[in-house]
Amino acid sequence: MVKIKAAVLILALMLVAGRAGAATLRIACGSAGVDQDICRVSANVWAEKTGNQIEFVNMPNDASETLTLYRQLLNSGSDQIDVMQIDAVWPGIFANQLIDLRPYSKGQEHQSFPSLVANDTVNGRLVAMPWFIDTGLLFYRKDLLEKYHLNVPTTWDELDAYASRIQRAERASGNEKMWGFVWQGRAYEGLSCDALEWISSYNGGDVIDDRGQVTVDNPAAARALDLAAKWVGSITPRAVLNYGEEDARGVFQAGNAVFMRNWPYVWSIANRSDSPVRGRVGIASLPKGGADGKSVGALGGWQLAVSRYSRNPKLAANLVMYLTSAEVQRKRAIQASFNPTIPSLYSDKGVRQANPYMVSLLPTLNAAVARPSAVTGSEYSEVSAQFWNAAHEVLAGHDHAANALAKLSVSLKRLAPNGVWQ
């Protein structure tokens, strides 16, 4: 099915190739929705300024499908996409198929969070530019916490207790659909993020450390996954095992969940004029794993990169620099709550008025935990798939965390060269 999609995509792109006149750049930026809409507006402004043309390539909503399509196009040496929006964990996967942007950046990358620039630099080459940054956050119903005289939970145990109390009381009051906590539990990349946050919050490590050592098999990591498994069917619907970001948002925004783990983009959508929870949503850092734990959000976000097979690499790089500029990032933050990768924008008056919570996000963004993509490089997709499948087995009640993580550790060491990632 994916091969058919790729073939159709390439055919569609070939039909627009060769248009006479100004240079035409083809950009894949976001799937359907506000992400794509605001990208189109900004890219078209660049086109008008430079006298060139833009063709927009629609990509799947699912990041895994997008990754597969990119791989097929780049592995075939296709020149049918010039500028690509890539996930934070993909620079290592595609490094050899992307151009080095440093000769074209004029130092613009130094405006962004250093951790993001480091993430986008592979073997000394700046293969992508940070576009917007994400981290996992706790969304909560302000009105319900006030109603039951509860504070924002600071530990997972508190969240469990508060969610259970409010869920029980709200159901007794007539809302039988109310759940305490929703998140991303489907076997996909989103679960890797959630599970990494739980494990790291309990000081259970980062699955694979930056020295290449597999560290996931430890009691703290097992404790974290066992706790999450207890939520399923209790404060969390069993359907969460098939939830992605939008599934969780749908339940929360319909007014049927007290707490939700999701990415910052939800803020602007939850506060639209037609949202049932408009004005009743709060945002906080994710809870700690107990008194000795820490609050951790997974480092996410998207970058812009230029294919090495582009016929107009210099022009494509110019487009990337415009789209990742402070000017455009400011507009994206104000209009659609995309978190800028440029720290100075968090003190911008317009950004702060549109997104009051963003200022408080800075410590969370600085402390965000990266998935082990840099150290595993081109094998990251397999590493993550093994991790999310192990976590899903525990959440579904098919395995105990200690056993699942022990098996995962053995498998990851077998996958690594000489048992250690370099």
Automatic annotation (TrEMBL):
Coiled coil: none
Signal sequence, renumbered to the chain: 1-22
UniProt xrefs under InterPro entries: Bact_solute-bd_prot1, SBP
The entry's keywords: Signal, Transport
SUPFAM superfamilies: Periplasmic binding protein-like II
Gene Ontology CC entries for this record: periplasmic space
Highest taxon of the lineage: Bacteria
Keyword Signal (UniProt): yes
Main localization (coarse): periplasm
Location of the protein in the cell: Periplasm
Gene3D superfamilies: Periplasmic binding protein-like II (3.40.190.10)
Family listed: Belongs to the bacterial solute-binding protein 1 family.
Name recorded for this polypeptide: Trehalose/maltose transport system substrate-binding protein
